[in-house]
Amino acid sequence: MTICAYVTYADFELDDERDLVPAAWREAGIEGRVERWDDPSADWSAYDAVVVRSVWDYILRREEFLAWARRVASVTKLLNPYAVLESNTDKTYLRDLGVPTVPTHWSSQGLPDWPEYVVKPSVSGGARDTTRTTDRAEAARLAKELEAAGRTPMVQPYLDMVEAEGETSLLYFNGRFSHAVRRSAMLAAGATAADNPRAQLRTPAPDQVELAEKVLTAIPHDLLYARIDLVRLPGGAPAVIELELTEPYLFLTYDPQAPARFATALRELL
Ligand SMILES: Nc1ncnc2c1ncn2[C@@H]1O[C@H](COP(=O)(O)OP(=O)(O)O)[C@@H](O)[C@H]1O
Ligand SMILES: [Mg+2]
After folding, report:
1. Cα(75) to centroid of ligand 1, in Å?
2. The pLDDT of residue 204 is above 90
3. Looking at residues 4-15, what average pLDDT do you find?
4. What is the mean pLDDT of residues 176-195?
5. Residues with CB under 5 A from ligand 2 (ion)
6. Highest taxon of the source (predicted)?
7. What is the pLDDT of residue 194?
8. Which of 19, 91, 101, 196 is least enclosed, having the fewest CB within 10 Å?
9. How far is the CA of 56 from the centre of ligand 1 (A)?
10. Cβ-defined contacts of 139-146 (< 8 Å, 24+)
11. CB of 170 within 8 A of CB of 208?
């Protein structure tokens, strides 16, 4: 029997997809075992594939996480592949995507004049260390603070469309569209982290599908999972805010067919 690891982290209870996924794998003839990425007793070579999922603490120790990923990739199939994880865990990849992205100023110096700013580190998740401010000097100060800590700041205009239309996340498994969701604004006044999972299934617009597929075509690797997070710029054009190829929540409970599609994609890549 084929056996694959579903890789999570110490606070695995927070991942409500960790039972659903192995159950769907079983239907596809794959046994799934939940493992913590930083469990020293795990034998990664025993798996036909090691599937990175809720490794939500890598933000705090990216080098250690990447060293782990390199080790795993040397003994078995790692999904997504190591090269993808290495580039995707630092949002500087947005510079080289070759598609429209949210305008970003990568330094604390010479900030553009925008009505409102978002300042965030290039290595982050779940809007950690991410601040919204109308004060340009405050934005510069926050960016400088990140630089002083050896991090790369990202300064962006605050896109208030995230409060009306919301962010659209498109899920692809082995390159095939599975489903899409609308996600609510995380930096809206009064929003909390608990709002994030409160998403809803959404049919993506043709221009969003076109952009998402352009992004995927540009990546020369097999991707078991890809979540492409899109917003709209003030003129209405879609733009990538984030490309989630490392540890995305997949919104699998939102579409009854999604877990089976994920399992089929894994089967294809084994
Ligand atoms: N420029 C922006 N305008 C409006 N909202 C933003 C902006 N940047 C980030 N956000 C909000 O913060 C959330 C987290 O930012 P994101 O860039 O996706 O990083 P991560 O999810 O890795 O923390 C987004 O989902 C969005 O709700
Ligand atoms: Mg995000």
Report:
1. 35
2. yes
3. 95
4. 83
5. 242
6. Bacteria
7. 61
8. 19
9. 16
10. 139/111, 140/108, 140/109, 140/111, 141/108, 143/107, 143/108, 143/111, 143/119, 144/108, 146/108, 146/119, 146/121
11. yes
Helix (H, G, I), strand (E, B) or coil at 8: strand
**Ligand 2 centre and the CA of 27: distance in Å?**
31
| Other Cβ atoms closer than 10 A to 179 | 22
Q: Per residue in 238-266, pLDDT tens?
A: 999 999 999 999 999 999 999 999 999 99
Tell me the CA–centroid distance for residue 248 and ligand 2, in Å. Answer: 9
Shortest-distance atom of ligand 1 to CA 159: 3
Q: Ligand 1: which of 90, 106, 123, 130 to mutate, most ligand atoms within 8 Å of CB?
A: 130
The per-residue pLDDT of the chain, averaged, comes to 95
Residue 21: pLDDT over 80: yes
Amino acid letter for position 100: P
Q: How far is CA 231 from CA 17, 129, 183, 217, in A?
A: 25, 20, 10, 20
- List, in order of start, the domains of the chain with CATH numbers: 2-88 (3.40.50.20), 93-100+161-251 (3.30.470.20), 117-157 (no CATH)
- 65, two tokens: 């996480």
Residues with CB under 6 A from ligand 1: 102, 118, 120, 124-128, 130, 156, 158-159, 162, 167, 185-187, 229, 241-242
Q: Which atom of ligand 1 is nearest to the CA of 156?
A: 1
